Amino acid sequence: MSNYQDFEDRHIGPSASDESEMLGVLGYSDIKKFIADVVPENIHIEKQLKDVLDGAKSEVEVIAELREIASQNEVFTSLIGGGYYGTITPPVIKRNVLENPAWYTAYTPYQPEISQGRLEALFAFQTVICDMTALALSNASMLDEGTAAAEAMTLARRSSRASDDAVFLIEEHVHPQTKAVVATRAKPLGITVVEVDSGHVARDGYDGEFFGLLLQYPDTTGEVCDYAKVTEFAHSKGALVIAATDLLALTLLKAPGEWGADIAVGSAQRFGIPMGFGGPHAGFMAVRTGLERSLPGRLVGQSVDAHGNPAFRLALQTREQHIRRDKATSNICTAQVLLANMSAFYAMWHGPKGLQQIATRIHGFASRLQKASSSRNGIVFDTVTVDVKNADVIHAAAKAKRINFGRVSDTEVRISFDETTTEKTFADVLEILGLSDAAATPIAVSVLRSSKYLQHPVFNTYFSETSMLRYLRTLADRDLALDRTMIPLGSCTMKLNATTEMEAVTWPEFASLHPFAPVEQTRGSRLLIDQLSKWLVEITGYDAVSLQPNAGSQGEFAGLLAIRNYHDSRGDQARNICLIPSSAHGTNAASAVMAGMKVVVIECDEAGNVSVDDLKAKIAEHGSALAALMVTYPSTHGVFESAISEICGLVHDAGGQVYVDGANLNALVGTAQPGKFGADVSHLNLHKTFCIPHGGGGPGVGPVISKAHLAPFLPNHPMDALAGPATGPGPISAAPFGSASILPISWAYIRLMGGEGLTHATEVAILNANYMAHRLKDAYPILYTGNKGLVAHECILDVREITKVSGVTVDDIAKRLMDFGFHAPTMSFPVAGTLMIEPTESEDVLEMNRFIDAMIAIRGEIQEIIDGKIAVEESALRHAPHTIGAIAGTNWERSYPRERGAFPATLTGLIPGELIGAKGKYWPTTGRIDGAYGDRNLVCSCPPIEAFA
C-alpha cells in the first residue's frame, strides 16, 4: 500500500498499479524481470544501493537536516571582493523568477516559438552587456568570469595571424582565480602564458611576439588603470586586447570599447545574483565588430515569423557550435540562462539612473577609505588596498565584528565595498583600521564615463513592482516549461525539480557565502559537499570526485585532462588519440581537442552499437598513441550495449583509458556502475539525473568522477587547498566548488529518495521509455533497440521514410506538437531526420498517453498527405504552430478549418472525450520563425533610442 507522504511516490509519476499495467502491455509481470531483460547481465550490479545509502527521509526531515547543515555556515559581511560581491536580489525577481518553476524548469530555447519569454530576457541581457562594454555584440552568457577569459584567449588565438610561438600576456593584477583558469586551459593547447605589468609594457613595450593581452578593469588591487597606451601598443603588434571588467563599475568608468578593447569578459553576479559560495552566476563575453563569427556560446538574434512579426531565436552557428565536434571553437553548449535573465531584470528594475546611484554610493565608500588610509591606490571604484602593520591583527579585529577583509600579505589588507554596504559597516571598517573618516573625491576625468547606456524603453519602464510583476508574468506566459507540460527531450532528462529540493537555494546561509570566505565560516557547505561527493561515489562505483566543473562540458574537459595528465605522469606523452563513436554528443570531440588530443571516429554497427570490429582496427592502427576512448552509456542511440565491458577491456589492454560520458546516468543509478564495468572517469550531469533544473538552458553542474589512479589529476584551486589534490591541473572553473549554491538540490534529491528510491526511479524511467516506444512503434518505427527489442531510458523515432513519402519533416512534427501544448522531442540528434524521446520517471501515465495520442494524431495528419487528401504545403503541419492571431484573423484561406489548426484532435484528458482546447489551451505567441532571415539580418541587441524617434 502506498504511503502518500513518501517523497518517492511524489517524484515518480506512475503509481504501482500504473506500473503493473505498463508492464503488462510489454508482456511482463514483474519490474525486476523486465529490468533484467534490459540491462546486460554482465554489468548489472548485485550490491544494491539500499545497502550503501541511507533510507529515504521525509520532506520535513530533509528540510530539518538541511537547516542543521546550513546553521554550521556563518554569514559574515564579506568585503573580500576579487570578483564576488554582496548584492541585493530584488524580491520581485527572487520570487517571480528564481523561485518560479515557469522560469527555472524551462529548457534550452531550441524551439523558439515556445521560448519567446526567456529569449526576450536574454536579448535584453545581451543589450546590457553591449551597452555597458561599448562593444558591438554579446553572447547570451558564459559559465563564469574565469572560463569566459579562457574562451577569450582561444578566440584571440584563432583570430590572430601571429606565429605558433606567440604567447598570451596576462596583466599581473588580474584576479588570481582567472589567471589560474586561463593557465589550466592554455597548457594542453600548447599556449604559453606570460605575466606582465601593463605599465611597463605601455612604457617599454614587450620584446616577444604575443597574440593577446588580458587586463583587469578595475584590477584586483582596486586600481582603475588607463589602458589606452598599452592597448595601442598591443594593436600595433597585431594582438587582441581582452578586458575582464565589472558591469557596475562601467556605470561610472569609461567603457572598454571606448579605450580600444577588442573583447570584454566578466561576471554579471553583482547585478542581483547571490554570491552562493561561488555560483552559479552569468559570465559574459562581448566582442567588437569583425569577431562575431568566432564568438563562443549562444547568441540570441531577432528574426521574423511566418506572419512577418518580429520574433527571437538562437542565431548563427553559435547555436550549436559543439556539433562541429573536433572543429568546434569551444565545447560550451549551454549558458547560465536563469542567472542572465535575472541580471537583465535587475538592470530593468533599477534602470540606468538607479544603477549609477548604486555605483556612486559604493565608490563613495571606497574613495573615503582610500583618502583616510592614504592608500597606495590612485583611482579606485569599489576596492582599496590598505597598508597595515600586522594583517593578522586586523583580520582578527574584523572577525570580531563579523567582517571579512581580503587577504593579501602580512602587511596589506584589501577591502571591497558593495551594494549591501551600510554606513554602520563603513564605520566598523574605519574603527578596525584605526582611521578617521575623510571626504570622497570624484573619479578622475581621464577614466570617467561620458557615454550613455541602457536608453532603450525596456530599461526605463518597469520601476513599480506592479509593472515589473506583470512584465515577468507576460514573458513567462510566452514560454512552455515543465510546469505546464511534459518535455520529452531525449538526452536531456527533463524530470521533476521538486519544491523541497529547491527550497534551500535561497537561504542566506548558502546564498550569501563568499567563495573565498575562511574555511571555519563555510563548514556547513563543505559538509554538504563532502556528503554529496561520497554518495555520488557510492552510486557510480568510482573512488574520487570533484564538484568544481560548472557544466557537463567542463566536466568532460576535466575528465579528459585527468587522462592526459595521467599519461604524462607515466612518461606516455605520445598518447594523444581519443577514440569517439560517431553517435557521441558533439561536446565530446570538442572537449578532447581542448585537452590536447586528436579525435578518431569509431563507426557504429547496424544496431546502433559501437562497432567492435572498427574499434579493434582503430586500436591496432594507433597502437601506443591511444590515450582514451570516450563513450556514452547507455549509448546515445538509447540502448544498453552488451559489449561495453569487452570494449573497455580492449582499450585498457592497449594502454588507453576509458571515459564514460555520464549524460545517460538516469538509466544506470541502482542498476549498473560505470566505475565497476570498466570506466576510468566520467562526468555526471547533476542538472539531469540529480534534479538540478535546466533553468532555460543553464545553470548546470558537471562533476568529474574517477577511479583512484586518476584522482591525483582532478581539478584543484589556488584559493582553496581543500578544493582538490595538490597534484591537480589547476581550476576548471573560477570558484573552488563551482556552482556550490545549487548543490543542496541534488543533496536533497538523494536524501529524499534513498538508495531504494533511486533504484526504483531508474527502473520506472526505463519502463516509461519502453511503454512509449511500444505504443508509438506502429506509427513511427523505433530506430534502435537492444536485447529482446527493448530500449534504455530513451528511444529514437525514425521519421526519415515518412519524410520521403510525405514531405513532412521532423520540424513540421515539432511545430505541430506546440498546437497540442507539447514541447518537441530532441530533433535530428544523434541521427538526422529522427526524434529522440525521454519521458523520465516523473511523468505519469496520463501525461504520457496524452503525448502518445498527440503523436498518433499527427501521424494521422501525415497519412492524409500521403493519401493525397491535402498537399504538405497546405497542411496544418506546415503552417504550425497556430497563434491566436492567425486563428482569429479575418481571412482564413487554408485547406483545413480553423478549429483543426487550433484544436488539432480530441484527446482523452481527465474527462473522457474532453477537447484539448476546452481548458488550459496553450497558445504559442509567434508563428514559425524564419531562421535564415535572422542570420542574413543579424540583430542581437535592442536598437538605440534614436530608432524610436
UniProtKB/TrEMBL annotation:
Its EC number is 1.4.4.2. Residues 761-882 form the Glycine dehydrogenase C-terminal domain. GO terms for biological process: glycine decarboxylation via glycine cleavage system. Residues 9-433, 457-711 form the Glycine cleavage system P-protein N-terminal domain. Pfam families: GcvP2_C, GDC-P. GO terms for molecular function: glycine binding; glycine dehydrogenase (decarboxylating) activity; pyridoxal phosphate binding. It catalyses: N(6)-[(R)-lipoyl]-L-lysyl-[glycine-cleavage complex H protein] + glycine + H(+) = N(6)-[(R)-S(8)-aminomethyldihydrolipoyl]-L-lysyl-[glycine-cleavage complex H protein] + CO2. Keywords: Oxidoreductase, Pyridoxal phosphate. It comes from the Bacteria. GO terms for cellular component: cytosol; glycine cleavage complex. The modification N6-(pyridoxal phosphate)lysine is found at residue 688. Its cofactor is pyridoxal 5'-phosphate. The glycine cleavage system catalyzes the degradation of glycine. The P protein binds the alpha-amino group of glycine through its pyridoxal phosphate cofactor; CO(2) is released and the remaining methylamine moiety is then transferred to the lipoamide cofactor of the H protein. Belongs to the GcvP family. HAMAP family: GcvP. The glycine cleavage system is composed of four proteins: P, T, L and H. This is Glycine dehydrogenase (decarboxylating).
